[in-house]
Write a structure and sequence with these properties.
- The protein is mainly alpha-helical.
- The chain folds into 2 domains: about 100 residues, EF-hand (Recoverin, domain 1, Orthogonal Bundle); about 80 residues, Orthogonal Bundle (Recoverin, domain 1).
- Strands 1-2 form a two-stranded antiparallel sheet.
- The radius of gyration is 18 Å and the shape is globular.
- The model has no long low-confidence stretch (mean pLDDT about 90).
- Pfam families: EF-hand_7.
- It comes from Chunga burmeisteri (Black-legged seriema).
- This is EFCB1 protein.
Length: about 190
């Protein structure tokens, strides 16, 4: 069921303000894309928006994401009200940062994705989980976990400015500002250039 023209216009106007990296034409296209994807889904939640699987499929097909754990975290980051469903507003506002965010917005977004338990820090365990997940398994290695532990140590050495054994937002932000490549240090959670 496509939304009425008036409702669409109102939504485009309000999202044009809140999703500030898109112009109104782009906002309208994203709303229509959302509607199309929702209509194609046979899911009972679909009226309200994307559930986890639909969102994962979109991330995979549009942005080439493959890491399940990271896709799950991206879902939670988009899903602002934690209702396990991504509404059209969450979709457009999320994509605004995801596709065109400033460095500052992307730093906040990546930090949120990597802070698995939401306590405001990226802990050694969280780094280990994410790196273990995103690195290819080497069958010949005696203990692949050793290599990952080394990587975690290197990351902490480079990024943990206050030496408390975990990354606060300030640590992460400073590290990324000094070296932009560290933005996605713990797994690809932004679209690739294509």
């Amino acid at each position: 069921a496509a939304m009425s023209r008036r409702r669409l216009q109102r939504l485009v106007d309000s999202l044009g303000r809140s999703a500030k990296h898109f112009n109104k034409g782009e906002v309208e296209c994203l709303i229509k894309l959302f509607d199309t994807l929702v209509a194609e889904s046979s899911n009972r939640f679909a009226a309200a928006g994307f559930d986890r699987n639909m969102f994962r499929n979109a991330l995979h097909s549009m942005f080439g994401m493959t890491d399940d754990m990271i896709m799950d975290r991206v879902f939670r980051t988009f899903d602002r009200d934690n209702d396990s469903c991504i509404s059209v507003v969450e979709w457009v506002e999320g994509l605004s940062v995801f596709l065109r965010g400033t460095l500052e917005e992307k730093i906040k977004y990546c930090f949120e994705v990597y802070d698995l338990n939401g306590d405001g820090y990226i802990s050694r365990e969280e780094m280990f989980q994410m790196l273990k997940n995103s690195l290819l398994k080497q069958p010949l290695e005696e203990d692949p976990d050793e290599g990952i532990k080394d990587l975690v140590d290197i990351a902490l050495k480079k990024m943990d400015y206050d030496h408390d054994g975990k990354l606060s937002f300030m640590d992460f932000e400073k590290a990324v500002r000094d070296e932009n490549l560290l933005l996605e240090a713990f797994g690809p959670c932004l679209p690739d250039i294509k």
